[in-house]
Amino acid sequence: MGLRPPDAARLARFEQTVLPHLNAAHNLARWMVRNEADAQDVVQEAYLRAFRFFDGFHGSDGRAWLLAIVRNTSRTWMQQAAKGDSAAEFDEDQHSRFCPTAGPEAQMIRQSGIDSVRQCIEELPVEYKETLVMREMEEMSYKEIADATSVPLGTVMSRLARARARVQNCLLVRAKEARA
């Protein structure tokens, strides 16, 4: 049984508006739930929700709308996981770029730096982490983040400043500990 013309048109609009943001959705989910398999499940659930409620989308920014759904789905997922305490640690190795020209020592130093940043980001409160990921990794504007998180623009700016400061302080502490 094929799609009727209105359904086909709706599906085409959905695909054009939302599907281009699959990588951004996956990246946010991966940082939020810290587990590749769970991130894939979260993104799948978020896309199902987005499709279910697509008729209610009347904006022009599909990315911010989708990431708001991914954010909410991730939070629900994390609440459910906390009940069962089944969250696994995010594995940066499978997502980092391999540099074949660097020697083992340079790769180890680079990986150590990546691990430190990753750990510092993971220690952030959820509100700061999601804001930092959306801005620095997904390169969303402050307005897009405000739309996705349903908070005022000033709150986005404040959270981002605090997240950056916490990551910087965390990295400084780790560097001092490494020298000691």
Give a quick summary of the entry.
This protein has 180 residues and is mainly alpha-helical.
What do you see in this structure?
By secondary structure, the protein is mainly alpha-helical. It has two domains: 1-86, Orthogonal Bundle (Rna Polymerase Sigma Factor, Chain: A), CATH 1.10.1740; 99-180, Winged helix-like DNA-binding domain superfamily/Winged helix DNA-binding domain (Arc Repressor Mutant, subunit A, Orthogonal Bundle). It has eight helices and no strands. Mean pLDDT is 82; it is low at 86-101.
Radius of gyration: 19 Å
Number of domains: 2
- Find the CATH superfamily of the largest domain: RNA polymerase sigma factor, region 2, helix turn helix motif
- What average pLDDT do the residues reach? 82
Beta content:
under 5%
The name CATH uses for the topology of the largest domain is: Rna Polymerase Sigma Factor, Chain: A
State the CATH class of the largest domain. Mainly Alpha
Return the structural class. Answer: mainly alpha
Distance linking N and C termini = 68 Å
Q: Outline the low-pLDDT stretches.
A: 86-101
What proportion of the residues is helical, as a percent range?
over 70%
Characteristics of this structure?
single chain; 180 residues; mainly alpha; Rna Polymerase Sigma Factor, Chain: A; Arc Repressor Mutant, subunit A; 2 domains; 8 helices; 73% helix
Question: Which helices and strands occur, and which strands form pairs?
Answer:
Layout: H1 5-18, H2 22-33, H3 36-52, H4 62-84, H5 104-122, H6 126-137, H7 142-149, H8 153-179
